[in-house]
Amino acid sequence: MAQEISMDSEGAVFSEDGKTLVGYSDGKAQGTYRIPGGVRTIGENAFSHYESIITRLAGVEKDCVGTLTVCVPESVGSIEKYAFDSCNRNLGAIIVDENNPYYSSDDGVLFHKHGQYLYRYPPGKKGDSYIIPKGVAIVAEGAFSHCNDLKSIEFPNTLIDIEPFAFEECIRLINIEIPGTVTSIGNHAFSLCSRLTNVILSDGVRCIEDCAFACCPFLKNITIPDSVEHIREAAFMGCSVLTIHCRENSTAHKYAHENKIKFKLT
Question: Per the confidence metrics, is the pTM higher than 0.85?
Answer without folding.
Answer: yes
